[in-house]
Q: What sequence folds into this?
């Protein structure tokens, strides 16, 4: 199957949390024999912050962020069996969401891939005149990278023909244990860009516990945090490139996951960071959201904190031996049940029976 995929960026993770999801999933699909072209705009200074070269398993087409260049990219996509428009491209999203539907043919499917479904659904439910809402029933399929049945139900309620979550996962070749790196040493680390719908939860689950544990060290990675007013025991190191993610996850006693507001409300939305940390064998603490046990077993493979006080209590009581046991158990679970190879099969199974060529590669 030939796939044309319009997304934010494959080659740069700069202000682009979806990058590792795209890389893991599309590489796994390529390994299954599918031919993939990824179309991404030259925007937000991402091309100047590339953290990988063009891969040999995917053709990357970078276009200028204007309608004329988009139209040229869309003409290239006409040779595909499946055309995908991802959410959050960041440039001309509304234009592309409409334009890709003009490529629909009897032998060419057009899908929308929502990498932030809870936020999308909250947006269209709050604004019935949102242009995307009327386009949903026209797509052959809606894929999401989280949300479970609440997201499926919500998408079906606004007319989606088919909605299937394809969750974040682990690429074992990319995320794995490495020796600790002194640059990332800490009692607790958190990696996430500073975003309006996450910031309060970061204060509640990370900065608050830090302020109450002045004898512990905290490491804050991600764009937007340096220059913020932080407790003295919190070190903000800015953007952490994907080449350093394993070292980041392997160098702290525990790593924290904090869901964005909308994802926490919907549940069933484990972030990419969850599986990256599990793949590295890190002891992961996550804020509470519905469906955690679908992915990892609380207390054995992951630690769940309903609030900042619980994070503080965990840090006060957990010893290195227990942290290591939890991290090792999480890695075993991820390798057994949550790899991108498994997710690629789920994509193929979803498309089986649809009118598209060579689904099984």
A:
């Amino acid at each position: 199957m030939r796939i044309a995929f319009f997304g934010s960026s494959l080659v740069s993770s700069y202000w682009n949390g979806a990058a590792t999801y795209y890389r893991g999933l599309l590489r796994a699909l390529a390994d299954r024999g599918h031919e993939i072209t990824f179309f991404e705009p030259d925007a937000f200074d991402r091309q100047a912050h590339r953290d990988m070269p063009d891969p040999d398993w995917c053709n990357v087409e970078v276009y200028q962020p204007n309608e004329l260049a988009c139209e040229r990219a869309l003409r290239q996509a006409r040779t595909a069996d499946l055309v995908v428009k991802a959410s959050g491209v960041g440039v001309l999203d509304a234009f592309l969401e409409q334009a890709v539907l003009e490529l629909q043919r009897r032998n060419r499917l057009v899908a929308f891939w929502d990498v932030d479904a809870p936020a999308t659904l909250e947006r269209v439910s709050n604004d019935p005149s949102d242009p995307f809402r009327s386009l949903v029933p026209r797509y052959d399929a809606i894929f999401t990278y989280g949300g479970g049945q609440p997201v499926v139900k919500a998408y079906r309620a606004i007319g989606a023909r088919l909605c299937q979550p394809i969750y974040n996962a682990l690429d074992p070749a990319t995320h794995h244990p490495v020796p600790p790196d002194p640059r990332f040493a800490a009692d607790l680390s958190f990696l996430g860009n500073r975003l309006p719908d996450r910031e309060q939860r970061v204060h509640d689950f990370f900065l608050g516990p830090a302020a109450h544990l002045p004898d512990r060290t905290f490491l804050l990675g991600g764009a937007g945090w340096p220059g913020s007013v932080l407790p003295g025991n919190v070190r903000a190191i800015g953007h952490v490139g994907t080449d350093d993610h394993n070292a980041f996850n392997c160098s702290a006693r525990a790593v924290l996951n904090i869901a964005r507001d909308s994802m926490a409300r919907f549940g069933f939305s484990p972030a990419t960071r969850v599986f990256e940390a599990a793949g590295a064998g890190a002891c992961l603490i996550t804020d509470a959201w519905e469906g955690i046990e679908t992915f990892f077993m609380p207390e054995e493979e992951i630690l769940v904190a309903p609030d900042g006080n619980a994070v503080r209590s965990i840090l006060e009581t957990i010893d290195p031996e227990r942290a290591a046991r939890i991290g090792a158990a999480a890695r075993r679970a991820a390798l057994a049940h949550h790899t991108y190879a498994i997710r690629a099969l789920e994509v193929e199974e979803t498309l089986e029976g649809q009118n598209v060529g060579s689904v099984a590669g």
Summary: The radius of gyration is 20 Å.
